[in-house]
Amino acid sequence: MLSVMELHRVAATMPLEAFERQLGPFVLVQRPPDEVTQQRALALGARRTVAVKKGTPRDDLGLLFEFDDLMVATLPPESTSESLTVGRLPDCDVVVDDPSVSKHHARLSWNTKTWAVEDLGSSNGTRLNGQPVEGMGIVHDGDELTFGDARFLMLRTSTLHQRLTTGRFQKR
User: Fold this and answer.
1) What kind and span of H or E run contains 110?
2) How many CB atoms lie within 10 A of CB 87?
3) In which element (H, E) is residue 30 found?
4) How far separated are the first and last CA of the chain, in Å rounded?
5) Each residue of 54-91: pLDDT tens digit?
6) DSSP-assigned beta bridge partners for residue 147
7) Which SS3 state, helix, strand or coil, does residue 166 take?
8) Nearest to 98 by CA among 40, 58, 145
9) Is 77 helix (H, G, I), strand (E, B) or coil?
10) Per-residue pLDDT tens for 91-135?
11) Which one of 37, 46, 47, 73 has the fewest beta carbons within 10 angstroms of its own beta carbon?
12) Helix or strand or coil: residue 84?
């Protein structure tokens, strides 16, 4: 994973098309856990948690203004894969080091028009904008995905590039 601070430098030197080629069509920005989740994770043996002041549960704009210390999981370009797995094991495409995340927790899939998330029978569930995912959930730019207690904001790479280069967050 890269930090947003590292991506600021990259985005400043690349036009949008090159940035998208490097990062893929979308990214997962890790949202900071709330204090209860941090304490529970540490009690279960997590090595670290992200310590950033939390806003309201759906305060996406507030989160994006505190962006620099957050971590970004880059994903493979749409043309190279149609799905990827999220989980705790190193063989997952997106590895989430959190004790509440199952070994193989969820699958993200896409085609040229839509993105979807599917829970893979995880112990602590997958949520899309706070709602449990049963079957396939359709994901849009700016939606929140939660795998166990690990929370992410899913963004189009173009949305992230715009935020990094202009300081504005505007969904497309």
Assistant:
1) strand 106-110
2) 22
3) strand 26-31
4) 24
5) 334 444 444 444 555 566 776 655 555 578 899 999 99
6) 126, 150
7) helix
8) 40
9) coil
10) 998 888 889 999 999 999 887 678 899 999 999 999 999 999 998
11) 47
12) strand
At 45, list the tokens.
């043996």
Give, in order, the Cα–Cα distances in Å from 153 to each of 18, 42, 47, 124. Answer: 22, 23, 22, 18
Judge whether 155 and 141 are in contact, CB under 8 Å: yes
Write out the DSSP string of the chain.
-EEHHHHHHHHHHS-HHHHHHHH-SEEEEEEPPPHHHHHHHHHTT-S---------TT-HHHHHHTGGG-EEEE---GGG-SEEEEESSTTSSEE---TTS-TT-EEEEE-SS-EEEEE-S-SS-EEETTEEP-SEEEE-TT-EEEETTEEEEEEEHHHHHHHHHHS-----
* pLDDT at residue 163, rounded to an integer: 81
Residue 97 is encoded by which pair of tokens? Answer: 């080091």
Residue 114: alpha-carbon gap to chain centroid: 17
Q: Considering the chain, what percentage of its residues have pLDDT values greater than 90?
A: 27
Taking the CB of residue 16, how many other CB atoms lie within 10 A of it? 13
Contact 4, 12 (CB under 8 A): no
